[in-house]
Amino acid sequence: MKKLLIFLCVVSVSFAMEAQITTPAPSPASKLMQKVGLTDVTVDYSRPSMRGRTIFGNLVPYDKLWRTGANAYTTISFSTDVTIAGQEVKAGTYSIFTKPTASNWEVFFYTDTQGGGTPRDWDDSKVVAKATVETFQMPVNVETFTITIDDLTNNGANLGIMWEKTYLAVPFGVPADVTVMKDIEATMAGPSAGDYYTAAVYYLNEDKDISKAKEWMDKAMSMTKEPRFWQLRQQSLIYAKAGDKKAAIETAKKSLTAAEAAGNDDYVKMNKDSLKEWGAL
């Protein structure tokens, strides 16, 4: 009898496991990804629907903190520093909470990103930005809670929130112009020390025009305040290949001294081997 009961329990558990049914989530998860200027913006949130209910002032009370969606915290991620309503916000991920009223909303960007509902213990010090924005009434209902990124420019956009007949937009700015201007200035100023160095070493290793490699390496070193031992090592090899043994020896000795100071035995040995080969040891 005991064995029969155990068998029936096993059969019941197996049947229950096989009979699991997957149904659609009432507030499905959504991910919004948008490039704004040069900044990647990602919003992760869940989307409840009206289903015949009155939303604002009822399901979502006025003058009370709301999680701005459903289920887990709604979050927004920025790949660069941004400004939100004129406030500087570092690159990273933040949760979005709101406090709706009939005419405007307070929108909070909060550093805690894990959890559901609203924080049990709200901490004002974790608010990285706050915006108070006017709401607009739309002529038709938006059945499902929706977050958008609207009005794109190279330097910013609006984070839109809409549900029922309510729409609001939180402006944010991105540093595209600053980044582009820096790139333009750097490019227009000509190649960097690193560019000259990389090109020179490539020419050395690929047995190309060694006089051009020497020219570029000299330019790179003149632009480098304190050349490192591995840079000096490459410069000495270029000098040697170009037939300037004196300069090669002088530069190898500098590389050797710097490598010894850094405790890099590999470069110490390589420099000593070269100096011996060139008759300096």
What's this entry about, in short?
With 281 residues, the chain is of the alpha+beta class. It has helices spanning 2-18, 176-188, 193-205, 210-222, 229-241, 245-262, 265-277, and strands spanning 29-36, 39-46, 75-78, 82-84, 87-89, 92-100, 104-110, 127-153, 156-173. It folds into two domains: 25-175, no CATH class; 191-275, Serine Threonine Protein Phosphatase 5, Tetratricopeptide repeat, CATH 1.25.40.
Average pLDDT, rounded to a whole number, is 93
Low-confidence blocks of residues: none
Cα end-to-end separation: 95 Å
Count of individual helical segments: 7
Enumerate the strands of the largest sheet in spatial order, edge to edge or round the barrel. Answer: 1-2-3-6-7-8-9-4-5
Label the structural class.
Answer: alpha+beta
Largest sheet: 9 strands, antiparallel
Number of domains: 2
N-to-C order of helices and strands = HEEEEEEEEEHHHHHH
Beta-strand level of the residues, as a percent range? 25-35%
Categorize the overall geometry.
Answer: elongated
The residue fraction in helices comes out at 25-40%
Cα gyration radius (Å): 32 Å
* Total strand segments: 9
